[in-house]
Amino acid sequence: MSLTTKVVRGDNAKRLLLLMHGIGSNEQDLPQLAPYLDPDGTYLIVAPRAPYAYGPGFAWFKFETPGTIASSLDAIEEVIDSSVDQYGLKREEMVIGGFSQGAAMSLVMAFRDAARRPAGALAMSGFLPPLPEQVSLDFSGELPPVLMQHGTDDPVVPIARAKASLEELREHEVPVQFRTYPMEHNVSQESATDARDWLAQIARGEKPTAIEVEVAPPPDVPGAVKAVNSATFDAEVLRSDKPVIVDFWAPWCGPCRAVAPVIDQIAAMRKDSYKVVKCNIDESPDIAQKYNVQSIPLVGLFRGGRMERSSLGAKPRPQLEAELGMLVIP
Q1: Residue scoring higher pLDDT (230 or 123)
Q2: Does pLDDT of 106 surpass 70?
Q3: What distance in Å separates the CA atoms of residue 204 and residue 195, rounded to the nearest whole number?
Q4: Whether residue 256 has pLDDT greater than 70
């Protein structure tokens, strides 16, 4: 089985970073995080497309037929072998990572074969999946470090499931760094920064410390990105004294995860002039319908009770600000 891939080659790429998307997404998703995860271009990022059609995208395995994970694992092995050979990289120096179902795959890949282990595994909003009889994990010998990141309010993969996976890994003495954040099923500025620092440690040949860290919620002050819904939209957005930037998103949206750190950055930089909020369209479909939000991520600028401008898609901060009619800050 041959998988379609998206490749982003850093200017100083010396290691492979395999990134597997979540269920319902595709290979275009996680490479958008490259500027945040690998700003120095240390990694060659290879993002394969999962083999099974699922909704608007693809899946690595079908929950009703767990055996489908076996063929996906073999296909990923082919992608790794091909990438290592084509770009002259070392398999033992690579990092395997992913988001949601892709994170589940990264954990299985990391401990599937003791002779073919990566230098580390990055699991964003992930879990250890149920495995069929033909797939087993091997925790013998030296084990690679793992970074697990999870939202305390994740409605898709509950935090309890992530912690159960953490305990299973700890039982086998896997050096896990477990970090939780006040977010849902997404990537935040804080989580992307922590992943960047962890990846940099791996690239330097270091062994990240096995710790558990809970990132505290931001204080309710100007600059924090507050969630709004149908009940609070009028008060927080339409009747706001300040112009309001609204990030329309959903947990299943891959590009929404890419734009989230940009929204966090704008909120911090523009706190004196703008209020910045986010609206989950799955929880507030009436708001999405009212403002004709048919595709996401869509970022709208509201002023005086109406949406003046909007920008569709994940974009760099200066481009997003320009499309919203804001004075661009370098």
Answers
A1: 123
A2: yes
A3: 14
A4: yes
pTM: 0.74
Query: Which positions ≥6 away from 265 have C-beta within 8 Å?
Result: 189, 317
Q: What is the DSSP string of 26-87?
A: -TTSGGGGHHHH-TT--EEEEEEPPSEEETTEEESSBTTBTTHHHHHHHHHHHHHHHHHHHH
Maximum alpha-carbon separation in the chain? 63
Residue 194: partners with Cβ closer than 8 Å, 6 or more residues away: 147, 149, 179
For 177-232, the pLDDT digits (tens) are 999 998 889 888 889 999 999 999 999 999 898 888 887 665 554 456 889 999 89
- Tokens coding 273: 């002039």
Q: Please, is 321 exposed, middle or buried when counting C-beta atoms within 10 Å of its C-beta (0-12, 13-18, 19+)? A: buried
pLDDT band, very low/low/confident/very high, at 63 (cuts 50, 70, 90): confident
| CA–CA separation, 192 and 66 (whole Å) | 30
What tokens were used for 212?
């558990």
Q: Which is it for the CA torsion 241, 245, 248, 250, positive or negative?
A: negative
Tokens of 224: 């924090």
CA distance 5 to 65: 25
Q: What residues are annotated to the active site?
A: 253, 256
pLDDT of 242 over the 50 cut: yes
- Identify the CATH homologous superfamily for domain 226-323: Glutaredoxin (3.40.30.10)
Query: What's the rounded mean pLDDT across residues 256-277?
Result: 88
Sequence ranges of the domains in the chain: 5-214, 226-323
Tell whether the model's pLDDT for residue 330 goes beyond 60: no
The CATH number fitting domain 5-214, selected from 2.120.10.30, 2.160.10.10, 3.40.50.1820, 3.40.50.720: 3.40.50.1820
- Cβ atoms 194, 149 nearer than 8 A: yes
Cα 90 from Cα 116, distance rounded (Å) = 11
Q: Is the dihedral of CA 185, 187, 190, 194 positive or negative?
A: positive
